[in-house]
Every structure is written in structure tokens, then in C-alpha cells.
Specification:
This protein has 186 residues and is α/β, with parallel strands linked by helices. It has 8 helices and 8 strands. α1 runs parallel beside α4.
Length: 186
């Protein structure tokens, strides 16, 4: 796991890939998302990653904030709903990244989000540590031929060994990276 191949390039300690994490910085505005892509392109950003959140598949009306950071939303569901994009918007956003010749990745949190990522031909998938026990999602991702990045943040050693065993083909073909990550955000 010292190398990961995305498209035709091998990334490692000598050829580092720095990924611009957009997350929800677009606040649900497609225009802001496109502006971020343009700004990152202007500084020769090589890779960009979005989070494909779909409120109806990841949250409930009762899902409260762990830390309430939103003045607009009373619940996490409201936040995810307000900031999510539909399939057409994702298509335009990912196409824009490709037009700017940036690698584009997606953190996915549901099978439905994975479908959007695959349909739009993202260059890599990211799985957060909070989802490494989401067996159905892991099985789906492990069956596709896309590079996969997995965060270790909240995982135990046994869980990390288990997740690596699911991606043996990816590991053998340099299409897997396990990242040491923290779950303590600013």
C-alpha cells in the first residue's frame, strides 16, 4: 500500500497527490461548487474531492447535530438536504472538473451516492472510517475497478485488517490506499 494508481499515474511518497477537499464548502450552491473548481484549476490543483451526501439515504428527521454549527438548519437531515445536489448537478460538477483536467474523487455514504459517482466516472472513491462497517457499501465498492481510499480515523486494528481483506484485488493492482486520518475536526 505504498503506491496508489489513479488513471495512469502512480502516487507515493515521491510523487504525492494532494487532494483539495471540497466537502460541503459549496453550501448546496452549484454556482459556488463551479467557482471552487475554477479557483482550484487556476492554481494548478491536480485533484479535487467532493462528498456525495443524500439526506434521504443517510439521515433521519430525528438525527441531531453532534455539534450544531448551522444557523440555518435544526437537524443534520435538514443540513444534508439543503446542501445536497441532484444527479444532473453532480453530472455538471464532475464534468467541469474533468474539463479542467483535474482528477475527481468522491466520498460516498450510501449505495445511491456510489451509483452517482460511478455514472459520472469519478477517478477514485473515498470511504470514511465511519462507514468501514457498512458491509453492503463495502461489498459494492470492492466489486468495482476504481481506486479506493479508506480513512482509518475511528477504526480498530481488526476493522482495518478486515477492510484490507475486502480489497485484496485493489491492493494487488495498486488501486487502494489506507490513510491515517483523524476524526477531530476544527
Amino acid at each position: 500500500m505504498k503506491n496508489i494508481k489513479i488513471k495512469s499515474e502512480i502516487f507515493n511518497i515521491k510523487n504525492t497527490l494532494i487532494v483539495a477537499e471540497i466537502g460541503q464548502a459549496h453550501e448546496g450552491s452549484e454556482g459556488i461548487a463551479h467557482s471552487l473548481i475554477d479557483a482550484l484549476s487556476e492554481v494548478n490543483c491536480q485533484a479535487i474531492k467532493f462528498q456525495i451526501h443524500l439526506a434521504d439515504y443517510e439521515s433521519s428527521f430525528e438525527d441531531e447535530f453532534r455539534v450544531n454549527f448551522s444557523y440555518e438548519d435544526k437537524t443534520r437531515y435538514e443540513y444534508w438536504k439543503r446542501t445536497e445536489f441532484n444527479e444532473d448537478q453532480w453530472s455538471r460538477i464532475i464534468k467541469h472538473c474533468k474539463e479542467k483536467e483535474m482528477l475527481v474523487g468522491a466520498s460516498i455514504f450510501s449505495i445511491e451516492a456510489l451509483k452517482i459517482a460511478i455514472e459520472n466516472k469519478v477517478d477514485f472513491i473515498k470511504i470514511g472510517s465511519g462507514d468501514i462497517l457498512f458491509n453492503e457499501l463495502i461489498e459494492e465498492v470492492s466489486s468495482i475497478n476504481l481506486p479506493v481510499v479508506v480513512s482509518s480515523g475511528m477504526a480498530t486494528w481488526d476493522e482495518l485488517n478486515n477492510i484490507c481483506s475486502k480489497f485484496t484485488t485493489h491492493i494487488e493492482n495498486n488501486k487502494f490506499a489506507l490513510l491515517h486520518c483523524t476524526t477531530m475536526y476544527p
